[in-house]
């Protein structure tokens, strides 16, 4: 499944190790947007992108099932 992580900064290996000992939360960082409207727009765009991907996968699955179903129906209809 696809996902979006644009709000979260991708840490390096070393910063991941440092987070083990970061009890005060000093290494927590997020990707910032200029304002809330831009952040909402980016999140909405990411959501619709995932919906589109899921629809494409579903349609591909239905096409595969439909072709097999048609073939089986044609084979069973022939004497």
The biggest beta sheet is recorded as: none
The residue ranges in which pLDDT falls below 50 over 5 or more consecutive positions are: none
The tally of beta strands, per DSSP, is 0
Q: How many structural domains in the coordinates?
A: 1
Oligomer: single chain
Radius of gyration: 23 Å
Distance between the termini: 44 Å
Overall geometry comes to elongated
Number of helical segments? 2
Proportion of residues in β-strands? under 5%
- Overall pLDDT metric: 77
Helix-residue proportion: 55-70%
Which structural class is indicated by helix and strand composition? Answer: mainly alpha
Write the element-wise H/E pattern from the N-terminal end onward: HH
Structure characteristics:
79 residues; mainly alpha; 2 helices
Description of the molecule:
The chain has 79 residues and is mainly alpha-helical. The protein has one domain. Helices cover 62% and strands 0% of the residues. It has helices at residues 13-19, 36-77. The longest helix is centred in the C-terminal third of the chain and has 42 residues, at 36-77.
